[in-house]
Amino acid sequence: MKQLSMILLILSISLSFAQAQYKAGSGLLLFNVGWTMASPEDIEADLNGNTFSLSYEKTDFSSQWSGGFVIAYSNTSADSLNAGGDKIDRLNKVSYEVIPVAFFGKIYFGSETFRGYAGAGFGIQFSNINYFTENGQVTAFESGLLISGMAGANFYLSESILLNANYSINYLGNSYYQNSLAHNINLGIGFQLD
After folding, report:
1. Bridge-based pairing state of the strands 93-110 and 27-38
2. Is the predicted pLDDT of residue 173 greater than 70, yes or no?
3. Mean pLDDT of all residues belonging to the chain
4. What is the per-residue burial (b if ≥16 Cβ within 10 Å, else e) of 120-139?
């Protein structure tokens, strides 16, 4: 009985992978979580933290191009040590929260079950910065330009469910992130919609 159950399980998984495929002209809804690293101006240490994103995209019927939008949340922080391990006297801790909203385009390549992509996007981001010093806390809110490049892959588990892996590099253009970059590495689950 155990052997029969195991054979049926393997057969059903094999059939689901055989039916797993990308559908041209479909929409993709993706939920991602991951790690982020930002290098803000005037901060000696890189800030590490978490990022969460929700995106929707629609592909064309040639199945090579897609366009969509993304909204995300990133939270990074660092203590009073710089990258060399030296103490920063003027600062005890710094933290950033960023909410980017962007439009993007992608070009796809690969098979029906595994599709890699590269893309770019632009939008706006809203930032909240907190400096914790010996004398108190300084908080500032700003918004600015967001320019993004991305690369990743979708692995289709079925006709409606896929796994997503994504790397993006973002230019965050306001006075706190001037000429700085944020790197995001994400993993997530997606749904293919008709």
Report:
1. unpaired
2. yes
3. 80
4. ebebebebebebbeeeeeee
